[in-house]
Amino acid sequence: MRLLATTNGGLEAIAAEELAELVGADASVHHRGVVEFEGNREDVYALHYRARSLHRVMAVLADGSIDGLEDVYRLTAGAAIAERLPEADFGVVGTRHGTHELTSMDVADRVGQAVIDTYREATGTRLPVDLDDPTVRLEAYLYDDRFTLAVDLTGDSLHKRPYRICEHDAPLRSTIAYAMLQIAGYDAGDRLVDPMAGSATIPIEAALAGADRIPRPDLDPMFEALPDYDGERFRALRDEHVPEPASLDIEARDRREKWRRCARENCEAAGLSEAIDVVAADAREASIDADCVVTNLPFGIRVSEDLRALYTAFCERLPAGSVDRFVALTTAPELLSFEPTDRYEIPYGRLEATIVVYEP
C-alpha cells in the first residue's frame, strides 16, 4: 500500500534513509516535510516503535490529478471510504500549495462532504465531524494539480518523547536532534560531545539510537480504531524488540547548573544516567576531543550575551582540540568563523534555521 510520512522540512533525505534502513522502503519526496513510499502493515507497526526521524505515518486513500473541487469529491468518493474508516467521528486538515481559486478550507470541506455521503450510502450511517479532537484524522494535500488524501495512523506525534520532563527555554525537537546525529555520521562506537547541551536532547537521542532503544515506548497509535490494523500485534512486536548492548561515550556539557540539573533529570527519565556524562564546562573555553561534536547553538532570542563573541570563542575551540566532525543548528551561520562543508536549510518554528556541517 501507499504510505506517507511527515518529517522536518528540509530533512526529507534523512527520513528516506531511515525508511530504507528500517523497512527497505524506497521513499521519495511528496512535498516539503512529507515523503511517500510503499509498505505493508508490518512496516507500519515497525515504524511506530523504531522510527526516530518521523512525526506521523499515514495510509493513502486517494491520489490523482484534479481540475477543481468536483475532482476532489470524485477522488474521495472513489476511495472505498466505508472499508477504510471506522464508524467514528472524523476531521479533515486541508493543505494547499500552488495557484488555485480555491482555499485549503474548500478542499477540506469537499473531502468531508464526500466522506459523509459515501459512508452513508454504503452503511446508512452519517459519520459525525469533530474538527478539534477527531478520532480519525484525514490529511488532504493539494500541491499544484495533485490531490492526495491520507488517513493518519499515528495519533500523538512520534516526535514527542516521554523523557522530556524538564524543558529548556528553547527546546530542540527530538527528530531534528536525531537528523543532526545522522548528518554527523554518529554511531555507537563514537565519542560524542554536545558542548551546549541544555536539557540534553542531542545526547539522549544519541544514546537511544546507539543502543537501538525504542524512542516512544509510551505511544498508543490509532490501530485500535482503524479497520485492518491490530493493536495487539503492534504491542507484541514492540515488546519483542530487544535493545542492542552498547558501550557509549557521550558527554553533555553546559556551563549553567540549571541546565545541567535539567539534563540529569531527563537522562534519568530516559534510563540513561549511566550512559551520559553531564559535565560543567564553558563552550568558550573548554577544549574538545571527540569523533562527533553535535550541538544546538544559541539563537540569541533568550541569550543576553553577544552572539558574535560567543560563536567566535567557541569556533576557536574546535581546531584547538581533536574533532573529526562538527554539526550544529543555528539561525546565524554568518557568525561562524569557518565555511561549512555542507548545510541544510530548515524551518524552525517561525524562524529559518540552518544545520551546518564542518570537518576541521
TrEMBL record:
Which molecular-function annotations from GO does this UniProt entry contain? Answer: RNA binding; rRNA (guanine-N2-)-methyltransferase activity; rRNA (guanine-N7-)-methyltransferase activity
Q: Which CDD domains match?
A: THUMP_AdoMetMT (cd11715)
Q: What keywords are assigned to this protein?
A: Methyltransferase, RNA-binding, Transferase
PROSITE patterns, per database record: THUMP
Record domain THUMP: where: 42-153
- Pfam family name, one: UPF0020
Question: Where exactly are the transmembrane stretches of this chain?
Answer: none
**Keyword flag Cytoplasm:** no
- Read off the InterPro entries from this record: RlmKL-like_Mtase, RlmL_1st, SAM-dependent_MTases_sf, THUMP_dom
**One GO term of the biological process aspect:** tRNA processing
Name the record gives this protein: THUMP domain-containing protein
